[in-house]
Specification:
The chain is an alpha+beta fold. The protein contains 15 helices and 23 strands. Pathway: Purine metabolism; IMP biosynthesis via de novo pathway; N(1)-(5-phospho-D-ribosyl)glycinamide from 5-phospho-alpha-D-ribose 1-diphosphate: step 1/2.
Length: 467
Amino acid sequence: MGGFFGVASKESCTFDLFFGTDYHSHLGTRRAGMAVYGENGFSKSIHNIEGSPFRTKFEKELNTLNGNMGIGCISDYEAQPILVRSHHGSFAITTVSKINNADQLVEDILKGTTHFFEMSNGEINSTELVAALINQKDNIIDGIKYALDVIDGSLSLLILTPMGIYAARDKYGRTPVVLGRKEDARCACFESFSYLNLGYSADRELGPGEIVFFNADECKTLVAPGNNYKVCTFLWVYYGYPSASYEGVSVESMRYNCGKLLARRDNVDVDVVAGIPDSGTAHAIGYANESGIPFSRPFIKYTPTWPRSFMPTIQTKRDLIAHMKLIPVHDLIKDKKLLLIDDSIVRGTQLRETTEFLYESGAKEVHIRPACPPLLFGCKYLNFSRSKSEMELIARRVIEELEGGEVSMETLQEYADPDNEKYQKMVDKICEKLKFTSLRFHRLDDMLESVGIDPDHLCTYCWNGKE
């Protein structure tokens, strides 16, 4: 996915920009960049961060990035921010986006008049495409509105100009944009906690489709927010850092509530409850406290060299690192009946290997409780799963195996219903394939209750196919 941070200050913005951007490192692993504007105009730096953390790549360049305004990003795909020269003047832009109709936009709307940078995977650079869409209109505000309207998928962005910074949130609010402020500076970011240690206090979250413009002195709303929004529920379940908050709901609190509601529907006989580090930990604590079963840490993630949840995009490398970074504590595993909570099951490969690793370490039983329902559809909005096909999802493979071939949307809805007989057959088959002692997924209604906001404002597409 990705995240961004922008700051406008009366002093140098470099320190705040550097650390504010770094606080988004859990959201991506491929590219990172910063662009600033100062007395000498625009300057920027972009690095590949697949092998090293953000800080190590940019520390030596901080003295060359001089300015009082800047934007930075962590990206899982395209190199950004990019610098653009157009009839709007020069500006830098960074996005968090997923554009499903990119080819159509290039062919039908831009009519091939603009050359686009093609990334190594053959896809168009999404941020460059957004900049080109903005340039179709007479002013930046209309251009941003146009881009938000024509893109199928999701788009939130920051645009750095010599006068200040534009910030816009996705039309349906699928990804967040949060504003912060302190004396002589203002900021905008994806993760609300990213500015706290930099001395900023919370201002507010942008509403769906809202566009603002800010400098060090003030922030003005240019386009008022809409009322219809669908926030990605996976922000709480998996993506978000524990200290983050979306729509006023803490990630850590939501995960704790998830575990609590999981426990209320369960009656399994186990010795300890554990979370898959790190996103399963709060879920497990909630489960343990509600059930009275002790919480334990039977394996530890080796954080000095693998601090982040996200890993390389090559699946074989991801599976290897997922295994290597977990260190067993044999005294807490041997002869124990373990209940593990993970945020989700996507392909199932990593969790199967973790289960095998626990059996090899002496575990008597391994019961799995994912903190969300089975994933039946590939995400259309945030690139949650890097699956190139929905058939890489373990639940979809099992459904087609049970049905003997391709299935209709109507049939998939039956498998999405936890009270349907087909649902239980799917769960039992997944449990058998992944070699768990038992498997129980979180129910969708319970998961939505764990968030605590109106379910009509939560995106659940990957679980039930409903937009």
